[in-house]
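User: Okay, second chain of the day. Same drill as before: sequence in, structure tokens out.
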Amino acid sequence: MPPAKAALEMLKFPEPKAPTSSKDTGSSALTELPLQRHYSISEIAELWGLDEKTVRRLFASEPGVVELANEETRTKRSYVTRRIPESVLRRVHRRLTRSA
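Assistant: Same drill. Structure tokens below.
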């Protein structure tokens, strides 16, 4: 499969499941967030054909992004690892997509 076609296939996200019982109807998005697929910056950059720096800027202040940070010391700089849940990825993609 050509890389471009593979990337398009990856964009087809599975549809969220509908609630199956009355207990499920009260679940909030926050309880479902940990169970979603989380994407790295490099995965999104490859998927969308963008530079990693651009993707970092897009998701830097986005609510719902998981950030793991190391404290800066005298000899080491700080690092931030970001993981983007699928729902946040979809939200940003919808916001950036032009409506026809």
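Residues 35-100 form one domain.

User: Thanks, on to the next one.
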